[in-house]
Amino acid sequence: MTAYIKLDHVHLDLPIYDINAQSLKKRLIRMGRRNRLADDSTGVVVVRALNGVDLALESGDRLGLIGHNGAGKSTLLRVMAGIYPPTAGAVIVKGKTVPLLDIGLGMDDLSTGRQNIRLRGLLLGMSDSEIRRKTDEIAEFTELDDYLDLPLRTYSSGMRLRLAFAISTAVDADILLFDEVIGAGDASFQDKAARRLCELHERAQIVVLAIHSSEVIRKTCNKVLWMERGHARAFGPVEEVVSAYDKHMHGTAPSTEGA
């Protein structure tokens, strides 16, 4: 099956509850975001998180999402994953999609490392047989040895991250959605993690990655979408869009030698 993603003029409005409406409006207006505010029929403040986004990706595409914090990158990933249905427009996704947006989601402090391999695996859509087949490989990759038989609450933050990373990157998917590159452990483990991410990218037909590193995007992506205040400001070839973004952010486009 050939995977693809198509977004047709997608809008997303998010209601903001449990906050003073006037205070929120004043704050966003000071930030120059008046046009992202509205009130629904009940008077609840609504923020326009995405505004008319058009996008088409096909098998082989590696898309980097760039933009400052709050530009809409993570929201766009959640729309692609089906977590947020669009308020208007259409989202068409074909292929098994796995969102790696919170790699620790679904892990239980009272369960052992091995039990958490199954829990997190099931949440990622793996079958029982797939989890059994991959458990030894996941365990070996973590380098946690006997700790895998201890409850997760006994783990350090670094150990938890290693386990979560190993499980999440064992998944097989047509479409992978990443929110930031995952850091996990010391320098030697980081090298292993980088190689594993590359292997994961190679197995998927489409990869969408939200990240602040222009260097990583230049090395791994063939297309870039520049998000700004919920809009798609630019979409196209990596060097063209990243250079324009870097120039906008820093006043100059950095050299790409050695990238």
Secondary-structure map with pairings?
Layout: E1 4-16, H1 21-30, E2 37-39, E3 45-58, E4 62-66, H2 73-80, E5 88-94, E6 97-100, H3 113-123, H4 128-142, H5 157-168, E7 175-179, H6 187-203, E8 206-210, H7 214-220, E9 223-228, E10 231-237, H8 238-250
Parallel strand pairs: 4-8, 4-9, 6-7, 7-8
Antiparallel strand pairs: 1-3, 1-5, 2-3, 9-10
Helix pairs in contact: 3-4, 3-5, 4-5
Describe the structure.
The chain is an alpha/beta fold. It folds into 2 domains: 133 residues, Rossmann fold (3-Layer(aba) Sandwich), CATH 3.40.50.300; 105 residues, Rossmann fold (3-Layer(aba) Sandwich). It contains 8 helices and 10 strands. It has a 6-stranded mixed sheet with strand order 6-7-8-4-9-10, sandwiched between helices. Strand 7, helix 6 and strand 8 form a beta-alpha-beta unit. The radius of gyration is 20 Å and the shape is globular. The C terminus is likely disordered.
Mean pLDDT: 85
Strand order of the largest sheet: 6-7-8-4-9-10
- Sheet with the most strands, sense and barrel status: 6 strands, mixed
- Cα gyration radius (Å): 20 Å
* Fourth CATH level, the homologous superfamily of the largest domain: P-loop containing nucleotide triphosphate hydrolases
CATH topology of the largest domain: Rossmann fold
Number of β-strand runs: 10
CATH class of the largest domain: Alpha Beta
In N-to-C order, the SSE pattern is EHEEEHEEHHHEHEHEEH
Strand content: 25-35%
Based on secondary structure, the structural category is alpha/beta
Percent helix range: 25-40%
